[in-house]
Every structure is written in C-alpha cells, then in structure tokens.
Design a protein that fits this description.
Chain lengths: 508, 508, 508, 508
C-alpha cells in the first residue's frame, strides 16, 4: 500500500509508511491504542495513519526505560556526548527530509521547518561540548581535613511532552541536554504531529542500535491526554518537561508536585513589542511582521501585542498594514510562501471565534481577521486596535492576531508590557542606552526573554529559553539549564580523624 | 511591669518586654491580632506575651513593603551588601544575648543557640561578598552585531516562613541572600518562637533606620496559619520560602503554584547514617550521638535511621547505648547539658504516641523512649530496633528517636537509605574510596546532602542546603542558591542595522 | 622626642613616632638598613624618620615567613576569611587617620586619601565572601570509576611591591586576596611612603596577634631597589606582584621568569578619553577633569590623552580650559583643594623637563605647564595640543599633562587609542549603542579597562583591574583574579580496579 | 615520481608526495627555504622530502594572516565553532591514515598514533560546544545607572610551536581553542615531523576553502629555530604557545616578554609515581609500565621517577622487571608492538650518553639501558636504582629511563616528588582517603597534574593540561584554558547622566 499522494513518497526516506506504529518501546515499534490520522493542514486530508499508545504500551515502555536508566547513568558523560554527536550527524544527513515533514504535517513554511531541525542539530553540537562540562564544584570547607563538594548526578528519566507548533525542536532542546546529563528520555509528541514523532525517534533509535545501547534509553509515544497524565503521575519520572498551554501546564504541575516530582514548564506567552519614537522604524516593522505573522502566529514567542509610541503610531501602523498586504499566503512547502495555514481546523474556528470576542470587547480590526477558503485552515492575519485593558488581550489567542496599542512614556509602555499574566518574551526598539538598560533592569520587562531591536521570537540556543509568571518559569537549551536535568548533592568528606563541627559548635 | 523571672531580664537588651507587639509593619511595631504567650519548654510557663498579626496588619505591612521594594531594587547591589554587613555586625554585638534567647525559647542547648546566631552572622559576611558577584553572563551570539546577555534582576519581595527548630538561622539563610539580591523580606516566624522573631527583626530594623532606609524593606509578622496562607496566596510575593513539614509544604506549594509564584521548600527529612564494616567506629558513634540526640532530635537533618553493617551491628549498638546513657539532660542554658526538652508539650505527646505506634509495628525499644517528669517537655532519647519496611520508619517523628537496622552489602544499605519518601541528608562511615564515590555517584544516596565520615547534620553555609523528593527540592545558603531569589532574563541586543535570524532562517 | 609639627601628632594613633623601625619581621619591628626621611610633598620637610631593611632583615623575615606559610596554608579558607574580616574592621576603625596619613605623605587630596583606605576595606569585605568561594571543579571523566577534579591550592608566599601613588590600596588588592587564598604576604612599600607601609602593617599585625597567629604571615619591609631585587630573585616567592613603571616591571619579570616564578604586573598606562560628537559634553568635561587632574595626574589610570571629534574640538577645549582655571591647588589636607603637589621634588623636575620635550616635539601648551613656588612640589596642570605621532605621546609622563588630539571618525579614534605601547585604561563618551559595542568589541579599545561615559580612572573592586601590552597583563581585585594567587592542579582519581586509558587507547 | 617504498603509498591519501612544499601561506603551498628529509625512525631512511620556510615565506604568510585576522575575529563565535566542527569531521574521515602517518614519522606505536589524532577530534567536538560558552560576565556595579561587564575578545593571532613527540595533538589543543576564540593560527611544527605538519594543515585548509574563508586563517610553516625566533619576536603575535624543552622555552619566554607578548609554555616534565604500601600493586605496575615505556619514554608526562615504599620495594621492582622483559619492541606499525624506536638517531646517542652519566653518578642499572641494532633508533628501556639527590635525576632525559627510589613515609615521598625543578605530572597509588587528599592538598604534590591510581600520562581533554615551575605554567585544552587565548576587558558603561565615583569619592 502506498501513500495517498506521490508528493508524500519522500516520507519513506524517514522510515514512514501509510500506516505506522506510534510507540517506540523497549527498542521496538508497536502501538496498541487508537489509530489516528495525520492530517495535512493545507487541505485537512490524511497523510498517513498512526497507531497510538495504549496504557499497556506505556507501562511496558516505562519498565524497559527504567531498566535502561540504570545502565545509561553509568556511561561516562563524554561517552554519552559521543552518542548525541552521532544523533546530530544522523539528523544532518536527513535535514531536508525532516524539515519537509515538519512543514507538511505542522503547516509552517519550509525554511522554518528546516530551521527547526537545524536547531536540534545545533543543540546536539552544543550538548557534545557540554558533556565534558557538567561540572560540580569543590568548595572550601571551614573544617580542617574536610572537603566539600557539589556533585551533579543524573535524575534517571526525563519525561518530555511537546506541542504541535515545534513538534521536534522542543524535544531536541530537552533530549540533547537530558541525554548527556545521563537521563533516559520518555517523549510524548503532540497528538496531531505523530509522523514527526516517529521520524525523529527512528533517527535516535538507529544511533542507539549502532552503538549497542538499549533502545529504551529513548522511549516515545504517540498519544493524547491519557498518556500525558500517565507521565505526570509516574513516580519513575523525576522531571517532566511540559510545553503547552498555561491551563494544562498548571494541571501537570499540580499532579507532578503531588508526588514530589519536578516540572520544567514552557507555557503560554503574550509577547509585546515596544517601539519607541527614536526607533529604526523599517527594522522594527520588519521585525513585527516576522514576529506576528511567522509560523502563522503559532509560536509561543509570537508577538501578540504591539506598543507604539504616540508620535509614531499612525506612521508605523500604516507601514505595517502595507507589509501585511504583501504577505504571500499558501502552501507552506512552496517557495515564497510566508504564511501557511493554521495547524488544525479547530484552530481556524478558534481564530474566528476570537475575532468575535475581540469585536465584542471594543477591538477595531484594522486589517485581515477572516478565514479564507474552505479546504485548508487558512486565515488572514489580523491587526487589531484595542485597549490594553480588554480581557481578551490578557489571553493567548494562538494565531496571527496582533493587538496594537498606544503609549506616551517608557514607563507606561513597560507597565502595559508587564500587565499580562504571561511572561515569556518582549522586545523594545530604541537607540538610547538609557532606555535599553532600563528595559533590561529591575524596573524593566518582567519576561524571561528581553530583546532590543530584534523580534520577540527567534531565540539562540546558547541562552536559556523560557519565561516567568504564567509562562511557567522553566528554562531550556543553553546557560545552566542543564542543572534542571540533574540532581545536586552537597557532599562533605571528612578524611581526618577528628570531628570538628560547623559554626564552631561544641557538642559533648 | 517586669518579667516573671529575674533570669529573663537580659531580654531587655534585645528590646523585649513582658508584652510585645509582634508585627514590624511600615517601619513600626504593632500587633492587632490575638495575644499569645511565649512559653519556656523547660517548664511550660510563660516568658512573655506577644500580640500577633491581624489580617489588617498583614495588608498594611504588605502595602508598605511593596512600595519599599521599588526603591530597594534600585539600590546598587554592593550598597545592599553594605547594609547586610551592618546587620552582621549588629548581630555580632548581640551574639550572646540572642543565642541565650534561642536556647530559652526554643529549648536547644546554649552552644547550639549561639551557633545558630553565628550562622546568620556567617551568612551576612558571605552575602556581603556575594553582593559584588551576582553575575550575569555575556554569551556569544551567532548573529553579527548582536550581544546576548543573561541578566539577573530582583524578584521584588521574598516571603519567608520559618519553623520553630531553627527560629532565626533559616531566616538568616534566606534574608541575607534575598536582601543583597535586591528583595524586600516578609517574615513569618514560628508561632511558638515569637520573641526570637521580634528580637531578630529589631536588630535588622535598627540598621535600616540608621541608614535612612524604609523599615518596610524588612517586614515581620508573628502569627499562625492565617498569615501563612495570606503569604502563600499573595501575588505580590513572587517567591515563598517555606520551612516545615512535607504536609504543610505541599499545601503551600500548590497554593503558590496556582498563582504562578515560586516556592523554595525545606521540608521533612528522614536521614540515615550508614556505618560500613571498615568504619572508624568511635568517630561514627560520636557522630550518631550528635546527629540523633542533638537539638533533641528536632533538626530537619537529625539522624533518624542508623544502618549498621551486620558484622559490627552488635558492637556499635552496645557502644551507642553506652554513650546514650551518659547524655546529660536538663536545662539547656546550663553548662554541660547535652539534651534539653522538646519544644512543646504537644511534641512530648507526639513522642509518646510515636513510641506506641513503633511498638505496634514491631519496633523493639532498646533504650529510652519515655517522657520524663511532668513540668517540662523532657523525654528520654530512644534507640529502636525495627524493620526498614515498617510504615513508621517512612515518616518523620520529630524527636530523639533512632531506628536501627542491619544490612549485609553496600547496595542494600543504599537501597534502604533511598527507600523513604524524604531526601534531605545522609551519611556513610567508611575508609574506602570506591565506597565513598559510589555513595556520591549516580547509584548512591539520593539525598541533597551526602556526607562521608561526618553526621547528617551540621552543614556549612558555603554549600547549598536542601533536599530532594518529599523534602521539597529547594536549596538555601551557598553555591548558586542566590539565583532562586532573582529573576533571570535572556537578553539579546541588536546594535547593528540588519536583522539576521537565528538558525540561519530566511523570512521574507 | 615628639614630631616636628603639632599637626603630625595624629600619627601616634597609628603607632608612628618621629623615628620608626621599618621592617616587620617574624612578628617584631626592626630596621638595620639605612635611615631615611619621610617627606611632606607640600614643603619637602621631614615628617618622620624610618630605618629601612637590610639584606639581613630581609633574610630573617623570609625565613620566618616561609615557616609561617606552612601553617597558614592549612588554616581552612573561611577561617582565613575571618582574619581578613577583622583586618577590615581594624581599618574601618582607623579610616580617618589612615586616610589623613595617605594624604599627608603621598600628597593626594584628603577625600582621595580616605577613598584609598576605603578601597582596602571594600577589598577585605569582598575577600571574606570569597573565602568560601575559592571553588575548584569536578569535571566529568570519560573513564568509568574515575573522578576528575580541578583543585586550587595556596602558592605559599606572595611578594607585593607597591608604588608611591597608591601606597596602600594596591597592597590591599593583593594582600586581601592572597591571604584568603592561603598565602603569606611579603610587602615592600614605596621608598617614599614608609610611614604608610608601617601604619598599614601595624594594623594587620595587631589582628594576627589577637588571633594567636604568627606575625610572619604578613612580613613588610621599607626599602628600595635592593630589597625589590631580593624579592624578584627569591625562589621562596612563587608570585611577585609588582606595580610600577614598565621599565622596572620588565626587569622584574625577566628576573622572576629566570627562576620560573610568576609575575603579576601593573605597569604604566597611557590612557585616552575619546569624546564623540554625540557625547554628553558637560559629563565628559567633568570626567576629563577628574581623570587628568585628579591625584595630580599620578594615577596609572590618569587620562593622558584626550581625543576630540573634529566637530566639538574647539568647544570642548574651551570648556575644559575654563574648568582647569577653576581648579583649587594647595595643601591636600585642606578642604576644597582639588590639586595637591606632585609627590617628590624629582617629579616636579621631571614635569618641567617633560614640558621642554613636549615643546621640542611640536606640542603647543594651551594651559598651565609651569612649576609653582619653590617650597613644595606644586605644578600647574597642563593642556597640550600635539600630534598623536609625537614620541613623547607614547610615554607616560607621570604628572598632570593632558595631550589633546583631533579625529574625524570612530575608527580613527580607536586607532589612535590603540597606537601606544601601553594598554591600561580608555573611555569613550557617546550615546550610540553601535559605537559603544564597537568600542567594547574585537575592533575596539585594546585596553584592560574599557569605559563608556565615565573617566579612565576610578575602578570598582568587583571587576578585574589591569591592562594589556606594556601595562603588563596582570589582573587584580575582582572577577577571577584570585586564581593568580593559587596553583591549579588537574587531578584524576581512579577509584575502580581497572585501568581504562583516555582517548580509548589500548596499551599492552 | 613515487615513494621509495610501497607502504608509503597511503600518504597520497593525505595529499603528500615524495617532495612537498612545507609552507601554507596566504591559502597556498610553497617553501623557498632548505629542503629537508622526513626520516623513518625504524631505519633512518627518507620517507619524503619537504621544502621548509624561508624568512620571506614567513613574512608573506604573516602579512596575509594579519589581514585574515581582521575578518576572522568578526565572524560570530558559534559560526567559528561550525568551522571547527567541520575540521573535526574531516579528521574523523582520515583518522586511520593520519594515525598511521604519526606512527610512521614519529615512531610511536599505531594505537598511540591513532589516539593522538582522536584527541584532536575530541578537541574539535569540545571546542564546538565552547563556541557558545566563551562567556563574559555582568558584574553588579556599586554606582547607580552603571553596568559593569567583563568582555572577552580575540587576541588576533596565536603562534603555536610544537614538538616532535605529539606532532599534531598539541596543535589540536591550541588551534581548536584559538580558532573558536576568534584567532588566526600560525603553526610551526617540529623540524623532524614535517609530513604531519603538512597533512594536518591540508585538512584544515580544505575546510576553510569549502567555506570560502581565507586560507591564511591557518598559516603553517615547516622550519627550524629561525622561524621559531621570528614568531617569538613578532609583535603581530600577542600569544605564543610553545611546547618543548625548559631551556628553549625560557628563551622564548624572555624574547616574547621583551615585546610584552604572552607565552603559554608546556616545557619539560620529570614525573614521579609514588606507590604506597597499601596500593593495588598489579594496577600500579601496569600503570608504571605504560607511563615509563609508552611512546618510548618520549612523552612530557612519561614517568621518570618511581618512588616505592620501603615495605614493597623489592616486590614491586621484581614484578616491574618481569613485565619489562615481556615488552615487545619493534616496528611501531606492527600489531602487538609496545615499544617503537626513539624518534631520531640523536635521541639514541643521548640515551647512551645518559646511561654513562647515570652510572657515573652512582646509578645502578637494574634492567636494559643499551641501544639495540644499528639500523633504527631502538633502545632497551632502562630501570635504574639511584639516589633522589643525584644531579641527573633533576633533569629530563627524554627516553625510556626509569629512576627507582625508596621512601619510608608519605611526607618523604612528597618531598622527593617536589624536589625537582619541573612540575608537570605526578601520581600516587593508595587506597586511603587521608593519603589521597593530602596528596591533592596544599602540602601535597606541587605539579599541575596530580593523579591517584592512574599513571602520570594519559590526560583527558576536559581538564586543563600543563605544569608548574620549570614546566612553564601554561594550561591547555579544557577548564578555562580558553581565557589565555582571549583578551579580557573590564568595561563600565554609565547610561545615566550623573557621575558618581567608586569608593564614594567626592571630586570637585
């Protein structure tokens, strides 16, 4: 049996067929849960079918994973780094195909699909270096003949639950670090991007096999909320990294906390760009376009709020509407397309419903805002003039809607920026050092990502990625994010024969 | 009106009288909540009275604190360090009196009372140095004319809820770091140690006043659960540091998470000492005594489980019972006393009830275990032979009860050590490098504190203090614990005029 | 016998008399070398007399110091920090007197004298914190059952040779760090500031004595080149920290290298301030004044070259001459004085000779430049218009001479800034981010200190102080400067019973 | 024209022929200096000929390199990392051939030849990760509206002079780090291993070309002392990394210092293994064999001194002589060979002369010590009983000679270990924690490498490699060694409009 369309044939190069088992368990493929369809957002027709995980699949997978963890944590970190290096090389070999699949199944444009895979490759390279730098400390002890050390040991298993919008890069951020840190990975991909979950897993699996390592080091499940909950409740999983909405993230957090596990949360954003009167306007406009329309507004770092200084308000708005008009919408795999469809039909409906709410709360739609055609999930990106106090502005409408607001002073702009529950990303456009450093300082943006003269999206892996407040507080990728994937112990060794006490206490 | 006893007169040196307002709000003292008695655990008679906080006191305090936060976070960190240095010097000047008060009100022996205050002084000294080292990073950007920076900014306000057993040191761990990090501190001390809360606050308040700083930078409340809950729910408090039981800690965590605040939890411990057959036995026995009987077993790091290698079991037990017999019990302020009373009458009752449960679960009491006298809260420290699987062994009975168990192999000892829900502290006594590093490694102790040839208690401030699993995962004092008291932002500044994108993406 | 003048009586508070032994050797004072006079630069009359070190004094001192080093390096670092804390407190108690002495003997104005002592106090506070953070690393090993560690151990003895212009702060930078790092200190102060050397040493000595530590931990010599050479050649001194001219520094370096010791060099500066056309001119002018005239131009960070953008050249120059005219010259101890005398009569002669050379090389003296009066060492600060290519501009004339030059472009300004052999400090005044980051970047200033909108002088202790090229490359005070005062060892412990080799080599 | 022997044909795969230009200058190959022969140490016959660099070649190369430096330092560090990654991959593709060449031209056995190339590959992988972690710091300023930063910028050009014994790994340590740090590399390989120099350079050159980067980023010269001196004197080269003898290294240092350049020196070692009475003797004996006989005693980390505890002296010696007798000597390319020839005929003569000196100083040759055959440079590895005080023991005789000595106490063993001028590597064999930590501590080994239960040689790249005292003090490869390849600047930006001064000074 072949694929429905000839243009899907490239999926064979990624080990995919028209019908695919969706669980990688104990080094083998299976799937005894429901069969689901992977759907092309351009036309809402099936690309291929996937058998999802049953709870039995999950349990079998976790048992094998738990066994594998005992072995993997004893492999020296630089050797683990070598495995991750090989994964990076295997991804590099399939970069084009994987990028194409991301674009096909998720709906983002091809350069972004390839960029997403490139980001995992970058993460692999980074993690290889890191595998020799997971350093503990030797801390001077106040007691003679004592040595104090801070050691970092693997956690065992890291659960990774990812969302449709970055169907593999977020896995990459987590898995690359988790693996060099000595953890096995249990991955549940988004229910609507199962082919990517399978293709990515296949690549990792081959590397493990080539190195005679248990496949269960990397365990993957296609599945939905049931599997997600199983992960959240599973005491064998000390750390659950969850990417998704604030609402679900909070439930995950409470469930995991209940059993004294840890969460790494990457939840909703509600990101603003502030344009000051001294900004480089063409640079700013180009940035807003990329940040608001890129990935059809379905990035967690998508710019959702545009704060314009009074004196440039009209002019920027005019330019922005001008560039919005030129955005080429269409098949994300076609060259030149800047805007693909929303990921699902439900997203499209949500978008339309959102427009109604916006209007009912006083929002004035300056551009776009309607769904287009009936076949796929295309919508016209919207520019909306609205008060910063409108309720809808406090929420994350996951599509290409940009709220535009006016401010008079830097303080006011910062206040509006910080007035939403979320705290992921934020940007200012200005050329004044005093404005830049205020923005970066204690009374500036309260987000995890604080940019200047670049959009809210497009993070580099060397920094820590994540946000504050309702965004969940987790940090992924660079900086010292790796510490979250390890357990820290403060160790004191007495190698002498006396027992001096700290703080000079005398006992007995 | 004077104190009930002449020996309480020294309290005047600490600004205390027979009746004391228990809230330091907006730089002044008040207390419109219930009046409570501070009770001497030696005789359960009142030392002095304290007017606790009402919810109105709380609200007034928080409003002032919130205002003060705006100012304090702009004071340069090294200047904040200078304030903390002065607090350290002020404590140094009152070390003896404060230590005496700790001993009097909490019931620990005087050297430990003084040691506890000394620990805050050490923390102050440490924090002063830290105030010039709260370093962010400049990270190489992959984009030309871009600079990537990781900045650390103050959180604003840190809530600190402390427990009776370290009525001031835990405040010290948190407040010294929180203050140099640019945060105001809101402190709720334990309901049964209000005099210490007041005396400590008084010292801090004087330093703030001398420097013309708002007293609200340090806001303190004597009070109970109501105030605790108010702190947990208060969105003005981004971080709540809670020390106490796992049960209450979990409630705090869920409440704070609900509003997307952060917690730093220091919860129950259930700490084991493992003695290998090659251990230095006299050193080990002395350590067990200090760890199990010190502070009447009311440290979170108290040794509660003693794991003895089969071959030395009888001999160690015999020696241990021998030293237990020589422990001098009595008034903690008297020279030579090693064991004071339990902190409250309720603790004494719990201890007695615990003994019953132990027996009902097969525990064999080898030494001690009964309450003594009727006036104070004195109990005989107990040594109990019991199975590691007994339910009671999984819980923290907050008194001087030591469960003794036998093991054959290192692996077995580690398994028992890790078999409880808590993960605070642990120690092994051995002279073999291979045993030491196994103990410290991925398959070793799963605790936050992992010691060798020293007891489970008596941490130095240079390391990070805290534990895993049901102990809550927080880390206080040294290492990079300060990062928990700040918010991190990943900042990218584009100082060029182009807009290159990360991962080499081309958009438009 | 009393002091020549009543206003010197305060020196008694610092333990000084009219005749003072100048060596602190083995915990006692002596001085069997030549007797020299400490001279007041205001009038070139004797303040007091000092007996300098003979080579025998030196040898005796070093023997005791070498013994003391064995003990001191075993004192736990946090305990060493406590000693340094006490030194800081002792200095705090004598801040006014010591600052007064610095002003009196060196000739700098009183606020600078007090500021210099304050800097040592700051260093002490900083070093106390550091004493718990002299961290080594635990590095992941590629070999199973191996642990790799980077340890930092004391060097033993650090020799510190300081210059007259910062007669005690430079000792402070070095000694505070050296001491917490576990080293004994051997100090040779400048020959012309012996009273400060003695007073400082006295304070340290008292603290050591109070703590029952050998005085030889801090060994000090008043003396000249002979003692300096003895230090440079002494194999018992693994590190020599030298502050002074490039010429002498190079000799020290070659001598110390010959015996495989290490040097930490703080040599000549030749520091430029660049003022761009968009600068805040009043801020810039005020900064140039402080940087060029402060300490009578005798700081290593004194601004010696002023690079003005063509478009603001005339205007800035005019304003600068205006403020130069208002500078109050006189007794440095008098309130309101901004400019004291040069330190010695020889300096004054050098200054006058320098003026002749400047003129002979085409320099045009726009303001000042002549000596004043005959009693003290006063000179009028000079502003000189000169080509950046003149030979004299490449050298450090250690007095208040400011060379003014014109440039057209940022690149040209940077080229001139970098065109001198020295590389200590540099500043730019601008409000443009692109200029700031170019200045800080690979094609910017090549100095160790690179400032923006502040003068070339006035460093904070939290950063690393020092310069590149002929300035010698050493770094003092903050950041990781402490590493220079310790020896690093890369340690690998095999705690297993196998012998795997790195890089997977198979041998035998 | 072909190679003299068929077995050299594989060299073609590395771009080598019978006659090769030895300079890579401005992206092209040339060589207008003397023609020299690369000689096979097995038979002293020519492998191929090489045209070395003339001074004109050098000057042309440096001019191009200096130009390339301006470009390379502006390439973002992660992009530079990508180039180094590609170099690593190119080496991986030629691992077997390059390893074979190392074995052929240098004379070490094939597994060591391959291991040496693997080490460069490891370094590349490590450096890729590092390229996103060359972090500067943001340091809290004591002044409001000021930000203090520590920035790291490229030096420009790094000169690397390597020795015959690690003809390419040492280049790898330096070049990988230097390149990601933004520096061009100028390499002078050892005069007797020109083919390796050419082959390595060829691989780097191809990667540069493929990426359209100037070849001059990597400039290489085959040549001798004249080129070495030119590098040492060249003010365009801020850092010279030199590996070789202490004698030459000191000359390089003084020459480079004279022009205020910096040196990174890896000079002679004189490394001891201490075997305590509680050691795992079989492990120790196997380690000594690898450390003393491996690479025919021509590693800088070769064990040259064996310190045996009195009680095991005879037994260990007997076992050691036993294993020495079984060492298979022969062609290093043959499977099973453990000991190849010395590198040159001169080395062989030096070895023989060394034996005479040893005898004349009272050394007793217990095993080996004579040259073997006449064709190649083979010698029998020697075991010599000698006093630690003999002059010859203080020097590095660069061949397989092991001095055996007896000690009674740990202190005595440490004293002997530290009694030589060199301070590179050292090992102890023991199972006692107190011995281990004394050995690692302030009164332990004074070397840069301090091992326990592994040999003196065989370092991992994650740690810093290098030694103290006459070994020169440089550190290569891991830890923070990269800092030596960059220049540090302490930057303060005032973004406010006031001019507060450090230390609270008031000026004017």
């Amino acid at each position: 049996m072949g694929f429905a369309r000839k243009e899907y044939e490239f999926l064979k190069e990624l080990g995919l067929g028209p019908r695919n088992p969706g669980c990688f368990v104990h080094g083998g493929w299976r799937g005894s849960g429901p069969t689901v369809s992977s759907v092309n957002p351009v036309n809402n027709q099936t690309i291929a079918e996937v058998m999802e995980a049953s709870i039995q699949d999950y349990e079998d997978g976790m048992q094998a994973c738990n066994e594998a963890a005992k072995l993997w944590m004893q492999v020296p970190a630089p050797k683990r780094g070598e495995i991750v290096r090989q994964i990076g090389d295997a991804l590099r070999a399939k970069l084009q195909h994987l990028g194409r699949l991301v674009s096909l199944e998720m709906g983002k444009i091809l350069p972004e699909g390839i960029g997403e895979v490139q980001e995992i490759i970058d993460m692999c390279d980074y993690a290889v270096g890191l595998s020799r730098q997971l350093n503990g400390s030797i801390i001077p002890s106040e007691r003679p003949n004592h040595v104090m050390m801070e050691m970092w040991n693997p956690l065992g298993i890291v659960g990774v639950i990812t969302a449709f919008n970055f169907p593999c890069a977020v896995l990459g951020w987590n898995a690359c670090i988790a693996l060099v840190c000595g953890n096995c990975v249990v991955w549940k991909g988004a229910p609507t991007t199962p082919l990517i979950t399978i293709a990515m897993t296949e690549i990792v699996a081959e590397v493990l096999e080539k190195n005679n390592l248990p496949g269960a080091i990397f365990t993957a499940f296609c599945g939905g909320a049931e599997i997600g909950q199983a992960i959240a409740k599973d005491t064998r999983i000390p750390l659950v990294s969850f990417t998704g909405s604030t609402k679900v993230g909070l439930m995950v957090q409470q469930t995991v906390s209940e059993r004294f596990g840890k969460c790494l949360l990457e939840l909703s954003g509600n990101n603003a760009i502030v344009i000051m009167d001294d900004a480089d306007i063409p640079l700013a406009v180009r940035s807003v376009l990329f940040a608001a329309v890129g990935t059809a507004g379905q990035r967690c770092t998508t710019c959702r709020r545009l704060l314009l200084h009074d004196s440039i308000y009209d002019s920027v708005l005019e330019q922005l509407i001008g560039v919005y008009k030129q955005v080429k919408m269409g098949d994300p795999l076609e060259k030149g397309t800047l805007l693909g469809p929303l990921h699902t039909h439900a997203s499209k409906e949500k978008f339309e419903k959102g427009m109604d709410i916006i209007k009912s709360q006083g929002g004035k739609i300056l551009h776009g805002g309607s769904a287009i055609g009936s076949e796929g999930n295309f919508v016209q990106p919207a520019i909306v003039e609205i008060s910063p106090n409108a309720d809808v502005v406090k929420e994350e409408l996951f599509g290409p809607v940009l709220y535009v607001m006016k401010f008079q002073t830097l303080n006011e702009a910062i206040e509006i920026n910080n007035s939403v529950p979320q705290g992921l990303s934020s940007s200012i456009f200005t050329r004044k050092p005093e404005v830049i450093f205020k923005w970066l300082g204690p009374h500036g943006s309260d987000c995890g990502i604080v940019n200047v003269n670049i959009p809210t999206n497009g993070a580099e892996i060397g920094g820590a990625f994540g946000g504050e407040k309702a965004t969940g507080g987790g940090r992924e990728a660079g900086s010292d994010s790796w510490k979250q994937y390890m357990r820290r112990s403060t160790c004191t060794i007495n190698y002498g024969s006396e027992l001096p006490l700290a703080q000079g206490i005398n006992f007995g």
